[in-house]
Design goal:
- The complex is a heterodimer of chains A (131) and B (231).
- Chain A is mainly alpha-helical and 131 residues long.
- Chain A has one domain (2-93): Helix Hairpins, CATH 1.10.287.
- In chain A, 69% of the residues lie in helices and 0% in strands.
- Chain A contains four helices and no strands.
- The two termini of chain A are 40 Å apart.
- Chain B is mainly α.
- Chain B has two domains: 1-33; 39-230, no CATH class.
- Helix content of chain B is 72%, strand content 0%.
- Chain B has helices spanning 3-29, 36-42, 52-60, 62-81, 94-117, 125-141, 152-176, 188-212, 219-230.
- In chain B, helix 4 packs antiparallel against helix 7, helix 5 runs antiparallel to helix 6 and helix 7 (152-176) packs antiparallel against helix 8.
- The radius of gyration of chain B is 22 Å and the shape is globular.
- Chain B starts with a helix and ends with a helix.
- Classes of the chains: A mainly alpha (131), B mainly alpha (231).
- At the A-B interface, helix 1, helix 3 and helix 4 of A face helix 1, helix 2, helix 3, helix 4 and helix 6 of B.
């Protein structure tokens, strides 16, 4: 009982921390991480609920739900990251066409390093903010 | 964001956390009531597998797992619809190349083991698929542009393999058997193993393709990259 309560309460705390971060922080990447932390909290809670205090084997139904939930969370996060990087690209393109009206394309650093190119304005989604 | 507002949000979220923890405590303290666990364990000999979690995933709640594979498929379709993948990384240094050459085969073998062992111990399609996906991530980091996956046409077959075979088995059982995804007891084990194998391949290739982050790159650049990797 105590072990299950501590484990589940830790999951609820993770959920609350993630929810707070999701609401307070502006960059999409931080929101995404916060959302994943909320999900981890829910998984914690499910595992804690599956625990049986009488020493019998744990309830397999929540375990199975968590197992599928993890894979769904990973794939949804991948989709969100892909959307985020496209947004970042579009913002970088928009701001670079604004700053260079001659139309000369900037050297494409993304192709070489695989990392998004930092831009001067807008496009701060992938950067950690200084609150 | 406004500092007062974030403080207010912090207080409200803390109150919510306290409320949830209190509800959780009283729920734990109360009589648990009837649960699904005894039923799941009681029906285990009829499920075709001897591990309760696998029985729940592939037999009792097979519907759930089918739809979950459909969610994976939807996610990868969304990623592919965003356009071509960003370029890969530079070819790996010698240490990473050797590491990838060792780890990827080991991950594939371990994935196969996890798939088989899921019938009677912790393991199964999801764990095995996650390992295959991580092998793909390592390959991509080591400079293989398509994360070890075949060309785009073949990748489409791979990512629909899980949900396709699952649906096919379900529909065949609905027409010729006892009902949608109601396995006959004699062949339950082999049907589950068949579905799990297809699901493993689909999950692994979907996760690896999701890591690539867009429609698969063209063939010629990949053959160059894999030559680099093999060298």
């Amino acid at each position: 009982m105590t072990a299950a309560f501590l484990y589940g309460a830790a999951g609820l705390l993770l959920f609350a921390l993630g929810l707070w971060s999701l609401l307070v922080h502006e960059p999409l990447l931080r929101k995404l991480i916060a959302f994943n932390i909320m999900g981890s909290g829910v998984f914690h809670l499910f595992i804690a609920v599956a625990h049986r205090s009488d020493g019998s084997s744990p309830d397999p139904v929540p375990h199975a739900l968590v197992l599928t939930g993890i894979v769904v969370a990973v794939s949804a996060t991948a989709l969100a990251l892909a959307l985020n990087s496209r947004l970042e690209e579009a913002d970088a393109k928009a701001s670079s066409s604004k700053t260079t009206p001659s139309g000369a394309p900037e050297p494409n650093t993304t192709a070489r390093t695989g990392l998004p190119k930092p831009s001067s304005n807008g496009a701060n989604r992938l950067r950690w903010p200084s609150r | 964001m406004n500092r007062d507002l974030s403080l207010l949000i912090g207080i409200l979220v803390s109150l919510l956390a306290l409320l949830l923890i209190w509800i959780f405590y009283t729920t734990l303290a109360a009589d648990p009531g009837p649960r699904l666990a005894p039923l799941a364990l009681e029906q285990l000999p009829n499920s075709g597998v001897s591990h309760p979690v696998t029985a729940v995933l592939l037999n009792y709640r097979a519907y759930d797992t089918l739809l979950e594979l459909a969610v994976l498929l939807a996610a990868i379709l969304g990623i592919w619809s965003l356009g071509p993948a960003p370029s890969g990384f530079q070819p790996a240094g010698p240490a990473l190349t050797v590491l990838a050459n060792w780890i990827v085969p080991l991950a594939i073998i371990t994935g196969g083991y996890l798939l088989w062992v899921g019938g009677h111990a912790p393991g199964g399609a999801f764990q095995a698929g996650a390992l295959l996906g991580s092998a793909g991530v390592i390959l991509r980091l080591a400079g293989h542009e398509r994360a070890g996956l075949p060309n785009e046409a073949a990748q489409r077959w791979l990512v629909v393999a899980g949900v396709g075979l699952f649906l096919l088995v379900g529909l065949l059982l609905a027409v010729f058997g006892a009902g949608f995804l109601t396995y006959p007891k004699a062949s339950a084990k082999w049907l589950i193993l068949l579905i799990e194998t297809a699901a493993t391949i689909a999950i692994g290739s979907t996760l690896a393709a999701a890591y690539v982050g867009g429609r698969p790159p063209l063939a010629q650049s990949t053959s160059a990259a894999s030559k680099d990797l093999g060298a």
